[in-house]
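input
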Amino acid sequence: MPNHSGNSIAEQPQFDPAMKSLVEPQSRAPRLVLQPDCTTCGCLTDERGYFVLQVALDHTAQTGHVVVLNGTIDLPEDQQATDAEQFASIERSVVIAYTDGGARGNPGPSGYGVVIQDGTGAKLAEFSEYLGHQTNNFAEYWGVIAAVEYAIEHGYSNLQVRSDSELVVNQIRGTYRVKHHELRELHARATELIKKLGSFEITHIRREQNTRADRLANHAMDRGTTRPS
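output
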């Protein structure tokens, strides 16, 4: 009869005739007991094992939501330190960048903003830059480029970018053609930088999910428009 429980016979409690009782099997493997907590929709439930991190990352990639991992380590004492360090290293290797760019007047005074988080949602950095008299799309591209440069300079090989620019996201993905000459140059620059990473994802999110990067981009534009002539 097929076993649909997900456990092999060896992993299930066995009847011991000598003891006349059920004998529980030994623990299958060290594991982490974690609860991925989505700060936006709260849709994730308790998970067990190392695949929890992938569950959280997949959810973030699909929705743009921030997922925080809460919980404890359920490991033999002699393995706790090693495995906890390994798991923390996996979390630290994933960087999530929220980017935004804009131009007042389009073209007009422009700037970008970037918020960098690690795999747990903790903020690592935030920065912005005034770009002069440019277009919205020019500024959006520079936000992505700045995020990739940050990851490379700080030794992060796995980057996930969240942007509210549908054009830039789809051009970098290869879904949209890059027609404007100026954007082709920025697209080529972004593509060459991305090749230096171990893995890269870019996801389109709604503007209301990108408020911190938007605020930074506006601060950059403010700095440009308040400069003395």
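quick obs: The first helix runs from residue 52 to 63.
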